[in-house]
C-alpha cells in the first residue's frame, strides 16, 4: 500500500507512522524549512519507517508534484484546516481527478464542517468539549491533562487509520475512492460510548471522582508509597479485591467495599498501608498475584519492566528506545525497519520506485532591474 502524507504535526504523522509500521510505503511530503514543534527530525520516531521528499506547495509546480504522487498512491493523509488543501490545489477533487480510487484521509480537531471547523485548536480543547477531559482527575482539583494521548492519538489517529483501512477495503472490493473525515471531537466522543450508556442507566454520576472507573472508588486508583512513588490498584472483581486486601494486610477492612458510605474510610486505610513501604517493596508483595496491582512506572523505567522486556514491547533502533510496532501478526510480523525519515532525503529513491515523471526544477523569479 502506498501512502502520501502531507506533513503536519500530531495525529496525522502518528496515523501515517502506524500505517508505515504495518508495512505501507509511506512518503511524507515535507515543506521547505520544516514544520512542527522544533523536534530534531532524527529523533522524531513518528516518522520512522517512512521516506521523505520536500515540495513547496506554494511554488508554481508544487501541486503538480503532489498530484503525481497521489496518482500512484492508495491513500493520502492531510491535516490542514478545512479548505486549505483545496486552495493549494491538492484537495479531494484535484486528487480524485487523477486517481478515482484514492482514499483521501482528512485529520482535524473539529472536523470538516460545523461552527468551529475553521478555528485553531489543540488536543486539550477537543477533549474538553466532548466531556472527556471533565471526567479525569480528583473532584476537588482541576481536570487532569492526559498528555495528548486521548484526543490526538486515540480519538484522532486511530480513528483515521480505521477509517482509511475500511475505505481501502471498499476500494479493493470494487468501490470508488472517498474522503475520510476523521475529527478528534468525533473520535474522543465515541471513546466514551460505554460511559454514556452507564450514565443513561444511572450507573455513572456526571462528575469527577465519584465513579467506579474514575478514581471515585478506593479499590480503583493510585496511592503514594513511602518513597514518594505510586502504586496503581484495579481490584474491581470481588475475588481480586479479596486477594488485594489480604496482601495489603488489612483483610478486616474488606467489608467496606460494598458500602459507598464507608469508601472514604477504606481509602484512608489503604493509603496508610501503602505509605508504610516503598514502591518496589509493594511491587514484590503483589508479584505473581491476581490482586490487579501494578507499580506506576516512568517513561524511562517502563522498557525495563520484566514483562514488557520479555514481550519486546519497546525496542531500540538507531540509539532511540521507542515503543515497538503494534499490534502483532502471526504471519506478517512488523518491525522498525528504518529510523525517522529526514526531510527530503529520499527524493531520488521515491521518484524511481514510484515511477514519477521528471519535472524541471522551478525557474526562480528574478526581481526587475531598477534601471
Describe this structure in words.
- The structure is a single chain.
- The protein has 371 residues and is α/β, with parallel strands linked by helices.
- 33% of the residues lie in helices and 14% in strands.
- The protein contains 13 helices and eleven strands.
- It has helices spanning 11-21, 62-71, 84-88, 92-98, 123-129, 149-172, 184-191, 193-200, 238-248, 263-274, 279-286, 306-311, 347-353, and strands spanning 2-6, 25-30, 50-54, 75-78, 103-108, 179-183, 220-224, 230-234, 293-295, 314-317, 320-323.
- The strands form three sheets. The protein has a six-stranded parallel sheet, with helices on both faces. It has a three-stranded antiparallel sheet with strand order 7-8-9, covered by helices on one side. The protein has a two-stranded antiparallel sheet with strand order 10-11.
- Strand 1 (2-6), helix 1 (11-21) and strand 2 form a beta-alpha-beta unit.
- Helix 1 (11-21) crosses helix 6 (149-172), helix 2 packs across helix 4 (92-98) and helix 5 packs across helix 6.
Task: Output the keywords.
6-stranded parallel β-sheet, 371 residues, CoA-Trfase_fam_III, CoA-transferase_III, Carnitine dehydratase, CoA-Trfase_III_dom3_sf, 14% strand, 13 helices, alpha/beta
Amino acid at each position: 500500500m502506498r501512502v502520501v502524507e502531507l506533513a503536519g504535526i500530531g495525529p496525522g504523522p502518528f496515523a501515517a507512522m502506524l500505517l508505515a509500521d504495518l508495512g505501507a510505503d509511506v512518503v511524507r511530503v515535507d515543506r521547505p524549512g520544516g514544520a512542527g514543534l522544533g523536534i530534531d527530525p532524527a529523533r522524531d520516531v513518528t516518522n520512522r519507517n517512512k521516506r521523505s521528499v520536500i515540495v513547496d506547495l506554494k511554488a508554481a509546480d508544487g501541486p503538480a508534484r503532489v498530484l503525481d504522487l497521489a496518482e500512484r498512491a492508495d491513500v493520502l493523509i492531510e491535516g490542514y484546516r478545512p479548505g486549505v488543501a483545496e486552495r493549494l490545489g491538492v484537495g479531494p477533487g484535484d486528487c480524485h481527478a487523477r486517481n478515482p480510487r484514492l482514499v483521501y484521509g482528512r485529520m482535524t480537531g473539529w472536523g470538516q464542517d460545523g461552527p468551529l471547523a475553521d478555528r485553531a485548536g489543540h488536543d486539550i480543547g477537543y477533549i474538553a468539549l466532548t466531556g472527556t477531559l471533565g471526567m479525569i482527575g480528583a473532584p476537588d482539583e482541576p481536570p487532569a491533562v492526559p498528555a495528548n494521548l486521548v484526543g490526538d492519538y486515540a480519538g484522532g489517529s486511530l480513528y483515521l487509520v480505521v477509517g482509511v483501512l475500511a475505505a481501502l477495503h471498499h476500494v479493493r472490493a470494487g468501490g470508488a475512492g472517498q474522503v475520510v473525515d476523521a475529527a478528534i471531537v468525533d473520535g474522543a466522543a465515541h471513546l466514551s460510548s460505554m460511559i454514556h450508556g452507564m450514565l443513561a442507566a444511572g450507573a455513572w454520576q456526571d462528575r469527577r471522582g465519584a465513579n467506579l472507573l474514575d478514581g471515585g472508588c478506593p479499590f480503583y486508583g493510585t496511592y503514594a508509597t513511602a518513597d514518594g512513588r505510586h502504586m496503581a490498584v484495579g481490584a474491581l472483581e470481588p475475588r481480586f479485591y479479596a486477594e488485594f486486601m489480604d496482601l495489603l494486610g488489612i483483610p478486616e477492612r474488606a467489608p467496606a467495599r460494598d458500602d459507598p458510605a464507608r469508601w472514604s474510610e477504606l481509602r484512608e486505610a489503604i493509603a496508610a498501608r501503602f505509605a508504610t513501604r516503598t514502591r518496589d517493596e509493594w511491587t514484590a508483595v503483589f508479584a505473581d498475584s491476581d490482586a490487579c496491582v501494578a507499580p506506576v512506572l516512568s517513561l524511562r523505567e517502563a522498557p525495563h519492566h520484566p514483562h514488557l522486556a520479555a514481550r519486546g514491547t519497546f525496542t531500540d533502533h538507531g540509539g532511540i528506545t521507542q515503543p515497538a510496532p503494534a499490534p502483532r501478526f502471526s504471519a506478517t510480523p512488523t518491525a522498525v525497519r528504518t529510523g525517522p525519515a529526514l526531510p527530503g532525503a529520499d527524493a531520488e529513491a521515491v521518484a524511481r520506485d514510484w515511477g514519477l515523471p521528471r519535472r524541471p526544477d522551478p525557474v526562480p523569479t528574478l526581481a526587475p532591474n531598477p534601471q
